[in-house]
Amino acid sequence: MKLLNFSHPMTEAQIEAVGNLVGAKMEIYDIKVQIDNKVSIMPQIRAIVDQVLVALEGEYHEYVVNPPGLAVAAVLLCQRLPGHYKTVRMVSDGGTPPRFHVAEVV
Question: 36: burial class by Cβ within 10 Å (0-12, 13-18, 19+)?
Fold first, then answer.
């Protein structure tokens, strides 16, 4: 199953945790999301979605998304993603620097 990662690079342990939760081996696609706040966000979101469409190769039935940390980018991306997908919820361990682990896939 394809895992579209719009956030920081995921560790092998995080990828494995997602796979265990969904019951499938993950094929990860790191998709860079670097929003320039000095220009309109929508053209940037469209360019990112175009990358997703290439990565999905027309297979929109089921995939997993690790959304970007910027809330507005996450909302706009998720509104425009095709098909049916599950979302990774990461949580911090509260340490400094924070380390994130996979809490669930919803």
Answer: exposed
Tell me how far apart the alpha carbons of residues 88 and 4 are, in angstroms, rounded to a whole number: 10
Contact (CB, 8 A) for 90 and 10: no
* Beta bridge pairs of residue 30: 5
pLDDT tens-digit series, residues 78-106: 999 988 899 999 999 999 999 999 999 99
Q: Residue 101: give the domain boundaries.
A: 2-105
How many domains are there within the chain?
1
DSSP secondary structure string for all residues of 34-65? ---TTS-HHHHHHHHHHHHHHHHTT--S-EEE
Determine the Cα–Cα distance for residues 16 and 13; give it in Å rounded to an integer.
5
Look up residue 78 and give its two tokens: 């998720």
Q: For residues 3 and 62, give the distance between their C-alpha atoms in angstroms, rounded to a whole number.
A: 10
Mark residue 5 as left, alpha or beta (left: phi above 0; alpha: psi -120 to 50; beta: remaining).
beta
